[in-house]
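User: what does the whole thing look like in 3D?
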Amino acid sequence: MSTRTVLAALAAATTALAVGIGSAVARTDAGAADPGVTPTEILVGGTAPLTGPASAYASIARGAEAYLKHVNARGGVHGRTVSYRYLDDGYDPGRAVQVTRQLVEQDGVFAVFNSLGTEHNVAVRSYLNARKVPQLFVASGATTFGRDATAYPWTLGFQPSYATEGTIYGTYLARTRRGARVGVLFQNDEYGKDLLAGLRRAVARSSVRVVATQSYEVADADVQSQVAKLKASGADVFAVFATPKFATQAYVSATKLGWRPLVLLNAVSNASTVMRTIAAGGASGLLGRTISIAYLKDPTDPTWRDDAGVRTYRDVLRRHAPRARPDDVFHLYGMAVAHELVRVLRAAGPQPTRAKVMRAARTLNDPANPFLLPGIVVRTGRGDGFPVENVVLQRWQGGRWHTFGGLWGPPPR
Amino acid sequence: MTRPGRSELVKVGLFAAAALAVLFVPRIVSDFRAQQFAYVGIYLIALLGLNILTGYTGQISLGHGAYMAIGGYTTAILISDQGLRLGGHTFSGDMRDVWTIPLAGVVAGAIGFLFGFPALRLSGLYLALATFAVAVATPAVIRKFEGFTGGGPGINLFDAPGRTRPTETTDPVTFETVTEPIRVLGFEIHSFNEWLYYLCWGIALVMFALAWLIVRGRFGRALRAVRDSPLAAASSGVSLAKYKTLAFGISAFYAGIAGSLLAIATTFVNPETFPIALSIFLLVGVVVGGLGSLWPLVFGAIFIQFLPLWAQSISKSPGAPSVVYGVILIAVMLLLPTGAAGLVRRVGWAASRLVSRT
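Assistant: Here's the predicted 3D structure for the full assembly of 771 residues, as structure tokens:
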């Protein structure tokens, strides 16, 4: 009996020791410089859903990583290589908090960059701001990341906010579709509500009316009954503010019901790969009546076959992420964000500090991000915490998106 | 009569030694590692509770993440000031986080005890499904009562008034940052991570001793009898209903405590911080530690906390972390079908045979 227990205690002690020794490798800060900067390297980190229900978004981190490797191969930033350490959070905000703390406290990253998910970023925002760690280019369209710069000066978003997107659809309807009756399907959370609020605000003083709204929960099985109610409301415009799975269901249900409205499809679900899934579901008729926004160059669009930006994109993926699928537009999004990160780090000068980087990020003006559509400027400034705000509208025709008209922007604030 | 007494004395001695070792861990590991070990302590508490139910009483639960959610939300709602309302009462964060921990345990325990009654009619696969349904429904229920739980955006506890942490103030004369440490029992703790470590492991040790007392005597014998042969247990006068519902209540109490600590450690709760995967990880942890054992559950807790990190450090290519995790889990189950507890037993036998031969 006692031999056994003693042996057991021994085993436990050995294990504890082994784990403890492993931890002694924690990085220490070098001199007076901010953590994560050495004479040869700048280390940034972020969280990404490598596993779990949203693992399709992992391509964003992989695209950004490939682009940074490409920059490093060409000499890096002021002679330093930029390393990007992204850790899996399984799309669980609790784990996002844990691994972000690991990045900051153990790995000693200079900045947190491109972490994905609304709640995931909200969960670490106070922590990062208290520690004065830049939280750069949050991968979420929630309006709070651009709007609340006074309370969270170390946090900055990237993509057009959901509210802006909703506003643009509303403005488009008010200008081109007099008397339109809109039925809205939206996800019952901040993201869906932001889009709906933007749409409502834009049509408030026009002849366009929102005649019915239907919400769904992420855990719902399908949205068939919601679509039927929207059709019954007599709407002739169908706003689909839903993630790819539910957007696909919405198209298929509306087609089955013989409903032929104009469809406004939110950017979350407008990747060409998703569109082809919808077409395969037998809803191509409705796809031909679909309008959405765009700010990225679609790598599957033949228009950009000889475009320098998309050529760079394919080249970088081939060299630095040979197993990645170039058709997956999320890779391109990752590169667009990484391009801005490099710009910001360059602007911070040869002796970068966190404060300098944040100042550069808040005074961005990049008219030529090679991965964004021509004319779209990445710009921030005093009172403007939204880097990408302009978009173009596009129509789905003949199996691909066609942009039309000029640039659309948010309403003047 | 003397032998069991002596072996129990040895056990108490070993426990004291382990407690002492736990006390000194933050001295030898980095501040951040202390935080990771705090999470190990939290998972250990949850595993101890689940093992009382599954390992000792033979009642499977695939829904313990739900009780952790109840505990976590109890603490979050009581310490935060976000205008959350229940009936006419608005919560404004008057409570200190540490005092909400036992409360979180009691609330979760009561709900677990009540769930034990319908569960009486179910066993085996049916019970697994029913408990799994609880885990699946929990996020939707939390979203539904938005005004009370904060809904999908969750509750941010970082700046919650009831949260214990070292406070930083700027000296009005010198403009230097002054850190006001956390004072506990005359000790001063300057780092939140260290505070978290001592809080979680202090409670884990108490809960461990409690679990040992529960499974040791008559009560524990009754639980094991319910597991091994419900018929025989009932015919010897053991009330199945009483012991099963109590086991559900006790294990939910443990889960509630763990959930409360998880909320304090993570400083954020939302429906996704208690995902279905958490319930499954807990069962995995119990099996890896060893069903019907106590201290080997530490290995189960280490497994839950560190394996996802190890899995992704091996490869980050699409799908790889999940595959690595799965392969390691299968390997562990093939090589150690009785968990860490079984391995220790086998090593113990081999060693004692070696000793007796020489």
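In plain terms: The longest helix of chain A spans residues 2-23. The first strand of chain A starts at residue 41 and ends at 48.
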